[in-house]
Amino acid sequence: MKKYSIEVLEVLSRIIEVEASDEEDAIEQVRQMYRKCEIVLDDSDYKATEIGMKEEKSG
Fold this sequence. Notes:
There is one protein chain. This protein is an alpha+beta fold. Helices cover about 20% and strands about 25% of the residues. The protein has one helix and two strands. A two-stranded antiparallel sheet has the order 1-2. The relative contact order is 0.36.
């Protein structure tokens, strides 16, 4: 029997609203909130699951 590497990918997503001077500042604010664990995605943020062959890295 042959071994296969199968990847299970779950997608979680949440919209975060912030006030900022521009788009770059808004993204940085949310990035910092995420790094500080002020934003923690959970099962209520579930969007999709994909199951397929793990892509082999060449080189």
